[in-house]
Amino acid sequence: MLKNAARGRAGLLAMALFVAIAACERKSDGGGRSTGDIVVGLYASLTGDGASFGQSSREGAELAAAEINAAGGLLGGRRITLLVEDDQSKPEEASSAVTKLVTQDLAAAIIGEVASRRTLAAAPVAQRYQVPLITPASTNERVTAVGDYIFRVCFIDPFQGEVLAKFAFNDLKARKVAVLKDIQQDYSVGLADSIVKQFTALGGTVTEPVSYSSGDADFRAVLTKIRAERPDAVFATGYYSEAAIIVRQARELGMTMPILGGDGWVGDPLKNGREALKNTYISNHYSGDNPDPIVQNFVKAYREKFGREPDSIAALAYDAVKVLADAIGRAKTTDGKALRDALAATDVAGVTGHLKMNARRDVDKPAVIQEVTYVNGDVKFVYKTTISPS
């Protein structure tokens, strides 16, 4: 027992020494590279079950960096170099990717991740080395609570839950709903909790929430249980892959009621839901139908560069890089502390809305409700309404 305790103390000492050495290495270089290109790290799930998110995130960030460089760069002509690490959709890989970007590549700031679980795994690394991290789309409330170097450009789940609950109660006239949540995803659990709280507060009834795990492929048993409760609507709060299967199997069981989800439904695999997607709705960060010139210029540039329509994840990643560039310009340096302070004072117009950081380093902005349709083999998100924070 004493030997084990001694080994444990030695291990902690070694880890502390590694952290101290790495921190000194960053400090000796000015908290990032003080000359030449400005390195911005992006970590994303380019492979694995979150690959659709990762691809959109990378493309949105690349477009923003290209536009900034084409306009003359930052700090007197320094270009942005975007270094991308694949976390394989795994939290442990997310932590390793950010450690590399911070300690080896000397990134001035980090963009990522989309999934809350992987941001919660990696954000402590950025906080420890005092490198600002901006997540494009991690909506779990706990993300920015990690520390004062962690920011986001998306709304948070308590608000998203409020939006979905209001739409179901006021627009769909639902009075009794069921909730399906993925217990392996912090995003899904947080959103489900918020929906239950908000829908109940409106005077509605929520049946006992039903759980599943990422990667499940057969939901017939849990859907049969939900069907027996005869709800007016169903919330499926997980990500796109499972959502596609849930809506398809629900329709096969004769469940014709509306099915609702959050922004986690936005991903190419959702098309596997095919015609079953009829009568489904999601909350989202932006609509490509918005005639605002900022939105339309982004949509046009994205189509020209990547040959496809941008989704909300691409728009959020684009905004994250533009917010970072704005902060670097105001800070006039890439020093971590100065950059953090400039990010905290962000107040700019973005593709996904007006981006003004509040005291929690979140942004308060409206959400849109979109109807999901399946046309000619592809998924379309059709704008329905906008709901602002209370």
In short:
Mean pLDDT is 91; it is low at 1-22.
Give the secondary structure arrangement, pairings included.
Layout: H1 2-28, E1 38-44, H2 51-70, E2 80-86, H3 91-103, E3 109-111, H4 116-128, E4 133-135, E5 150-152, H5 157-171, E6 176-182, H6 186-201, E7 205-206, E8 210-212, H7 220-229, E9 233-236, H8 240-252, E10 259-261, E11 280-284, H9 293-306, H10 312-331, H11 336-344, E12 347-350, E13 353-356, E14 367-375, E15 378-387
Parallel strand pairs: 1-2, 1-3, 3-4, 4-5, 6-7, 6-8, 6-9, 9-10, 10-11
Antiparallel strand pairs: 11-14, 12-13, 14-15
Helix pairs in contact: 2-10, 3-4, 5-6, 10-11
Please state the oligomeric state of the protein chains shown.
single chain
Helix/strand class: alpha/beta
Mean pLDDT: 91
Biggest sheet details: 8 strands, mixed
From the alpha carbons, calculate the radius of gyration and give it in angstroms.
22 Å
Percent strand equals: 15-25%
Order of helices and strands: HEHEHEHEEHEHEEHEHEEHHHEEEE
| Overall 3D shape | globular
Q: Note the total helix count.
A: 11
Helix content: 40-55%
Distance between the termini: 56 Å
Poorly predicted segments:
1-22
Count the E strands. Answer: 15
Properties at a glance:
390 residues; alpha/beta; 8-stranded mixed β-sheet; 5-stranded parallel β-sheet; 44% helix; 19% strand; disordered N terminus
Describe the overall structure.
There is one protein chain. By secondary structure, this protein is of the alpha/beta class. 44% of the residues lie in helices and 19% in strands. The chain is built from eleven helices and 15 strands. The radius of gyration is 22 Å and the shape is globular.
